[in-house]
Each structure stands twice: as C-alpha cells, then as structure tokens.
Amino acid sequence: MQIQKNASLKELNTFGIDVKAKQYIAVNSSDELVHILKRFYASELFVLSGGSNILLTKDIEATVLHIQTKGIKVVDETENSVLVESQAGENWHQFVLWCIENNYGGVENLSLIPGCVGTSPIQNIGAYGVELKDVFYSCEAVHIQTLEKRIFTNADCKFGYRDSVFKNELKGQYIITNVVFQLTKKNHQLKTTYGAIQQKLDENPHQTADIKAVSDAVISIRSSKLPDPRVLGNSGSFFKNPVVEKSFFDLLQEKHPEVPSYKVSESQVKVPAGWLIEQCGFKGYRKGDAGVHKNQALVLVNYGSASGEEILQLSKAIQYKVHQTFGVALEAEVNLL
Ligand code: EPU
Question: Is the shortest distance between the CB of 296 and ligand 1 below 6 Å?
C-alpha cells in the first residue's frame, strides 16, 4: 500500500477541478481494501471511483481511496442469458465494449457514460431508454466500519430515477467491490425507440441492426451533444429532470405549448431540465471558466481553471432563475462536496 501526501485530484475528476487530497491511496484489490479499512477510521476516508459524478469544491482533508480493481468474467450462463461479474474499478464504457465484443446484450444503450462499474448502481445510471436497474443482477459491497461483506440484490438496491439505497439510507456506509449483470446471449431486445437512435440506424439501411449498431448510434448521438470530459471538464447532467404534478404541467403547457415532457404516471410528468435552463437564457453562458454547454444546457462545464465553488455558484444562479421563472425546483444530480 502506497500513501501519497498532498495529491492533486485534477486528473481524477471529470470536471477537472484542481483540489488536493491530504492523502491518496490507489486500491488494486479487495484484500487491499479490507487491509486499508482495518487501518483507518471510516471518518478518515473518502472513496473516489471514476470521479465522473462529483463536484469538488474544496481540498479533501481525508485519505482518498481510489478504487482501481480490475477484472471481468462470466460467472454463470444458460442457453439464453449470462451473468457477468465486473470488478468495481473497471471503466464503464470499456465494460460495455467488452459485452458487445462478446455479443452480450443489455448495456449497449449505456455506451460512453463516463465513470466506473462500481459506482454505476449508486445513481442507477441511465440513457436512451435503459437504466442500470434493467440489467443489474447483484453487487457485493463491504461495510466501511464492520468490514462485513454483503450481497445486494436488485430489490435491495431500491433503484429509482438516478437514485438507489446507496444515495439514501446507506449513504457512505458501503464500498461496492463488484457488480454482476444479467445479459442476453441471443434474441437481444434492442431498444431503439428513444430519441434519435432509430433515426441513426436508418441512416445505414444495409447495416444489421444489432447491439453493436445500437452502441455505435448512441456513441454518435452522445458525442454530438455531450462534451468529452477529456476535452472539456464536465460531469454529464448536472441536475435531475424534475418531476411535476400533471395539473402544474398543464398550466406550464398552456403558457409554453412547445415544452417537451415524459409521462411518469397518470398524475406526474417529467420536464427536461435542459429545456427549462435554456428558456432562462443560460445555454452557452460563460462566466470566467465556468459555463453552460452550448449544445446541452443540462451540462455545466469547466473551460480550464474554474474552481468547484465557481461551478457551484453558477448552478445556484440557474436554480434560482428556473425557480423564479417556472416555479420549478431543480435538484443537483451530481454529488456536491
Ligand atoms: N433540451 C432543450 N435544451 C437543451 C437540452 C435539452 O430544449 O439545452 C430538450 C431537448 O430538445 C429534448 C429534451 O430537452 O426535447 C431532452 O433532452 P435530451 O434527450 O438531451 O435528454 P435529457 O433529458 O436532457 C437525459 C439524461 C442524460 C441522458 C439523456 C438521454 C437526466 C438528468 N439526463 O438528458 O443523462 O444521456 O437523457 O437518455 O436524466 C447524465 O445523467 O449525466 C446524462 C447525460
């Protein structure tokens, strides 16, 4: 175990915020993790994975554990389906590509989402009509204080929209060490109705519509709208799409007939936060190095040397204006520190 003092976290968070950790340890195996957990009090630790869903606003006065465990393998299979186990530190998109190469279906719509496998259940990552919960079988996690290992089933995780038990009652208590996915081996159920996927597939009528084609379509759509964090610091959607009462939505639609929406239930409607933010004039806005992306107003960006505090202040200005204009409260999707 190597402890680095005063380590910069700039390269380890996709916003590219330059803060320091008092101590930093790269964790390469589950055994090493348990060893470290025995040595430190839980309150002295801060767990970092892909750094893709966090806004760091200050130096971290704790020991940062950077989970880098690797390995993907099949743990069980039937004629039609397969259970694939991935260690927490695997890069999410590399995992998706591995599944596609092996012709395992289910995660293709989740191509190119930044981050690691181990944190994917925490916020139930989702895109283009698929959420992690649709393919999640189980995960193993270790309790930070008791070191007890626990298997969480899909039901145990209490998945919701960008939400799970790990963001609520068990927040900060467990470190996920591996995730098992249930995927298809044949008769893949392609989900192509969301957004522009079908349109992209239709552009190449001679290509077989398979999981690789869907993944390629998603990569192409995402690349056209969402900034690449390696080029422009960002954390994907900064806010959740707000869910409002149908009666409230009807009034909003009377004033703005063009407002996009997704039905959640008979009484609730989801309104795209990107649309609300754009209406408030923030799309493409920039103050110093903190800004709102020009193609997707839901994505806040760091043009280079913005501090976490500057991005946070911008997010607050957006929340204020959206609330003042539409009476809708936007909730941050990224974790704020
Ligand atoms: N829109 C605008 N202006 C904008 C952005 C969006 O008017 O600046 C409108 C679009 O025209 C469209 C609607 O809002 O009618 C929805 O936009 P989009 O399809 O881009 O998706 P989103 O609701 O903004 C969600 C997820 C994304 C995911 C996409 C595709 C959340 C918080 N975000 O965004 O997830 O990739 O759908 O499935 O649910 C992420 O979580 O980091 C993320 C990128």
Answer: yes
Number of domains in the chain: 3
| Whether residue 193 sits in one domain with residue 81 | yes
Interstrand relation of 45-48 and 60-67 (parallel, antiparallel or unpaired): parallel
Does this model's pTM top 0.85? My answer is: yes
Condensed to tens digits (0 to 9), the pLDDT of residues 89-98 reads 999 999 999 9
Residue 195 clears pLDDT 80, i.e. is over it: no
Verify whether ligand 1 is closer than 6 Å to residue 128 (CB atom).
yes
**Residue to probe by mutation, ligand 1, list 191, 237, 252, 264, most atoms within 8 Å of CB:** 237
User: In terms of domains, do 17 and 118 share one?
Assistant: no
Catalytic residue numbers read 162, 237, 333
Is residue 245 located within the same domain as residue 218?
no
Shared domain for 57 and 98, answered yes or no, is no
Segments forming the whole domain that contains residue 303: 233-336
Q: Is the CB of 241 under 6 A from ligand 1?
A: yes
Other CB atoms closer than 10 Å to residue 251's CB: what's the count?
12
Decide: 236 in ligand 1 pocket, CB within 6 A: yes
Q: How far is CA 194 from the centre of its chain?
A: 18
Which is it for the CA torsion 202, 208, 210, 215, positive or negative? negative
